[in-house]
Amino acid sequence: MRHLIIGGGIAGTTAAEELRRFDADASIVLLSEEHHRLYSRVLLPHYIKGKVTRERVFLKKPEWYAEQRIEWYPGVMATAIDPKNRFVATSDGREYEYDKLLIATGGEVNTLSANDRDTCYFRTLDDADRLFERLNECPERATIIGGGFIALEFVNIFADRQIPAELHLRGESCFASVLDAGSAELIKQKAEADGIVFVPRSTLERPHGLLGVGIGIVPDLRLLRDAGLDTNKGVLTNEYLETSAVDVYAAGDIAEFFDPIVGRRVQAGNWMSAQTQGRVAAKAMVGERQPFRLVSSYATNCRGMEVVFVGDVNREAAEQIIIFGSLAEGGVMQHFLRGGKLVGATLVNRNHDRAAVTKMIQEQTPYV
Amino acid sequence: MKLTITVDPDLCIGAASCVTIAPETFQLNDENKAVVYDHGTEPGGRVYRRVIEVTTEEKENIILAAQSCPTLAIILTDEAGNQLFPEL
């Protein structure tokens, strides 16, 4: 059996590991655009803050791939996928035949049109190395563009180093497509207390100082569309992570999968989901099909304010949103309802509600 | 066998992967940090470190939970004091 995995991040690498566990003799090929062995993107902020060494962000030893007999090709990208003839062409001029193919290529960072050495992104280890280097030059001021999790990482990083910074938002507030005004204001107040100035409805032209950009990611679907796979915002799969092409699977940020818990197709961009999907996809690839069922979450802490998203927090897909708490009370929770059931929740400084809402979403009992 | 389980609250970001995999051993506290339980109970209160008696199967699952942590905030040591995870 020849297993081919495109993408050497947590989804792809977990799948490779799991495949080896199931089948000692299979050929497992892992193509990775990045040159680094598997590392934790979630540890990159800790590395920037000096909480862990750079070496600690790596999750596999250099010899691990050979020990597992995983043929790992760093720095290699797919250039064409042919699901009919079952092969993938790559940037190193080779063609790899497969019996089972897993797409785990993640997402590409949205970039600004103009970039210079002051412009920093924060997705990869190379991005973190660059940011680390620039921070050590002690910039006098900084600008952040974006209003999501990565923008808030920049808030923490600049505030920790006491670099005055402006946060430029396209809309009114951070997480504008998810959070209510009260939740967003709680985050803003904490960040502003630490010297970050929020600029809503920004039409920033010339940023000041070091520029931290966190304006989202988007999966590169061109090859997959050319290959005839069904796509939308990601590559479409069912709950078994099977795509529309036979023997082609998807896992991680790129998968737009049917989530049987919330009853619709969603994408999840978090570590736990990617890792679990890698495992579930590997099982499907060896014929041990089981649905991917996980209530995953996003958690961050912005200047001491805990922000947690659980389940499906898409406002447009919700039929009703109920708000608990308030700005004055210092904590806000939103419940996202659909079909009379809880499908998602956001919690800002409401950690004590997290276990209960996760359980409610998981169990899908009627909402009362 | 006995297993020493330690959570480093400075590294933990509340991703809750350990809670998903081993809820009998890990739960989040109000600071959004994982704390260590002894088979679903918390004698002595919510603590970041505990020595618990585990079966081989339980130990394997706790190792899986520790491996799933994206910040490597869970440290496991065996009775002889050998660090099982993260690998040194």
Verbal overview:
The complex is a heterodimer of chains A (368) and B (88). Helix content of chain A is 24%, strand content 29%. Chain A has helices at 10-22, 44-48, 64-67, 125-135, 149-160, 181-193, 222-226, 271-285, 354-363, and strands at 2-6, 27-32, 70-74, 78-82, 87-90, 95-97, 100-103, 108-109, 119-120, 142-145, 165-168, 196-199, 210-213, 217-218, 235-237, 248-250, 255-259, 264-267, 297-302, 305-311, 320-326, 331-338, 341-348. In chain A, the strands form six sheets. A five-stranded parallel sheet of chain A has the order 3-2-1-7-16. A five-stranded parallel sheet of chain A has the order 9-13-10-11-12. In chain A, α1 (10-22) runs parallel beside α8. The termini of chain A are far apart. With 88 residues, chain B is of the alpha+beta class. Chain B contains two helices and six strands. Chain B has helices at 17-21, 56-68, and strands at 2-7, 26-28, 34-36, 49-53, 74-77, 83-85. The two termini of chain B are 22 Å apart. Chains A and B meet through α8, β19 and α9 of A and α1 of B.
Low-confidence spans of chain B: none
- From the alpha-carbon coordinates, what is the Rg of chain A to the nearest angstrom? 21 Å
Instruction: Summarize the amount of helix of chain A as a percent range.
Output: 10-25%
Structural class of chain A: alpha/beta
End-to-end separation of chain B in angstroms reads 22 Å
Main β-sheet of chain A, in a few words? 5 strands, parallel
* Count of beta strands of chain B: 6
Gist of the model:
Chain A is an alpha/beta fold and 368 residues long.
